[in-house]
Amino acid sequence: MAQEPLRYRRILLKLSGEALMGAGTFGLSPEVVSALSDEIQSIHGLGVQIALVVGGGNIFRGMEATALGMDRVTGDHMGMLATLINSLALQDSLEKRAVTTRVLSALEIRQVAEPFIRRRALRHLEKGRVVILAAGTGNPYFTTDTAAALRAMEVQAEVLLKATKVDGIYTSDPLRDPAAVRLPRVTYQQCLERGLKVMDATAISLCMDNRLPIVVFNIRVPGNIRRIVLGETIGSLVSE
Predict the structure, then answer these.
(1) Which domain does 90 fall in, by range?
(2) What is the DSSP letter of 24?
(3) CATH code at position 69
(4) Is 83 contained in some domain?
(5) What letter does residue 29 receive in the DSSP assignment?
(6) What residues contact 83, with CB distance under 8 A and at least 6 apart?
(7) What is the pLDDT of residues 104-118, one digit of tens each?
(8) pLDDT 10s digits, 2-31
(9) Does residue 181 sit within a domain?
(10) pTM of the predicted protein model
(11) Are 116 and 87 a contacting pair, CB within 8 Å?
(12) Based on the structure, what is the number of domains in the chain?
């Protein structure tokens, strides 16, 4: 059986912590983690090299804690640790599917994760391992969106896949505004000028400066990641 041609051979997939909650309001949904692992296993089987950046908002949000009076740096570090919990959960689920993974953390916790070293991450990808990049950038005041953009450039990903609850970029929140219109293709500049809720401005600017395309898509539709890497037009594309 002939191998299907790939549009993207190395990707960075950005998952929000909320994506792992399912219908819950806190923590991890085993069903959602299992379904995501099936999706990742599917594209891994095609030969796609996969890096993942996972948020931690299902466990702890530094910005919300800051609003309640916590020191911003402390809150952000707690949020980074939340991303590590999610990363370990995904690693466990993937390895149950015989997908070899490595968790690389921007905060050093050697008992459970390797420190993030760019050359090591590249080597893991070349060997066909799924690389899960935890703890954001390791610095406060930066979101996991910015971490995803930064890591995508560092590991030389061909595209940044931004997983969301909706099927692309809209003129306003489609879950609240029935008049919202989906935009199948936008430029980086339009995202910044119109305040489109894609990723934060720092992440968009990083991608624009380095010409890294972003595909925003609905992670809740089974098979969407596979369709994207095989070249189907799914969701919305942000490019020059």
Answers:
(1) 10-239
(2) S
(3) 3.40.1160.10
(4) yes
(5) -
(6) 17, 54, 55, 56, 134, 135, 136, 144
(7) 999 999 999 999 999
(8) 567 999 999 999 999 999 998 889 999 999
(9) yes
(10) 0.95
(11) no
(12) 1
